[in-house]
Amino acid sequence: MAYLRTGLSLTATLTLSVTALAAPAFAQEGPARLGVLSFSQGLELTDNAILAVSPTGDSLISTTRLGLDMGTETRTESLRFNIGTELIGDIFGETEDDFEFGNYSAGLNYRREGASSLFALTGTYRERQLDDEVLDPTSAFFGIDLGPDVLIIDSGTVTATGLGARLQTGIGGPFELDLKAEYADRDYEDVVDADLVDNTRATFDALARLRPNQALTYRLRAGYDLLEEDDLTSTETTTTYIGAGVEGATAGGLSFFGDLLYDRAEIDTGTTSVRDGIGLDLGLTQERNNGTFGLAVASRIDDEGRRTSAIASRAMELPTGALSFSLGVVDEESDDSLRVAGGVNYLRATPRGGLTVALSQDITASDGDVFRDTRLEVGFVEEINMISAFEARLGYVMSDELSGSDDDKETVATLTYRRDLTEDWQMRAGYERTILSTEGGTDRTQNSIFLNVERDFAFGF
């Protein structure tokens, strides 16, 4: 299996996603209720060239997506529920059995806010079919975090279940408490890639703030993370931290925070290894007339060892957009050299559209190997008239193993035409070209043409 060691989502989605409309403003006298039934139909003609060394031939994939989003909300409480599924099949397939329902999803969100408190609960379920395709584990469209920080070509099924809770009390007062807990379970069936293993993760974070005055706040932090992986050694990784520090702001627009922490990571693979030590987390932000200056310094320990970084940043507003950039250094314990990291983000608005450019370089570690991840994404939108527009996107990602030869690259170029067919129906059509280069020097190119229509039906209940 070929994969890229990066978490950046660059591949444009080829079918329109289910749209969940937010509930409008609500009157005080009673709850407002709104439901949205979403429908979309997509066709994608692809040559499947990146799926294997020997391409599988042309496919005409039909994807019918159905979604239901329902919610009720008052001034202090909100409750939302959503479900979705897809009917997917290859029109060029040999049997009608190729068409089947899959990619199920469900979610439940509850939120209650008081004058100085917040309570929130979330629950999610996602089931995703992997049909010999390139799958980005961080894709918000699929809603599944696959675990390893990679782009993967594989088949099978992944199921992810998540639960989360948050409680805040005393917000803005002399004593504030913020508690967060999350649980995630991920299961794979019929997959080939050895990196895709069943796992569960439980995390808990607590932050307490004590404010003797509005300019200075004392804080205590603590956290716990348990990752259990169903691999050959049944790896169990426990990470904990505890720390104390201060945060505050000055009349001159300088805000700051600083924490001194103790980090501990215990990795059990049959034999136990422990990494621990003192950590530091500092941040400064200076407000300016047209933006901010920032400085972030951190030295923390996790299961990969100590990571130390110092990053300076600048963000500014421009007459026709915005510009931000950062530059600094990163030192990973398993790397012998100090590495440069940073990025640039640029936004320019035009009379009928806009241009966005994002370029970044970061240093990451995985299983003792250090990688330099370079990412570039350029997007351009231009309205043709009141009902149609043209979009272009170019994405590039490169992951370079600094201590080896595992170098992976992906380039994606997409041209899209979108149009309102009626007041309710929308259409998107376009072309996408993907070039994938993986370890060993194998380059594969895939071409796709796509057409999609969609509509949302809103109703009250």
From TrEMBL:
Keyword Signal attributed: yes
Protein name, per record: Beta-barrel porin 2
Keywords: Signal
Highest taxon listed in the record's lineage: Bacteria
Cleaved signal peptide residues: 1-27
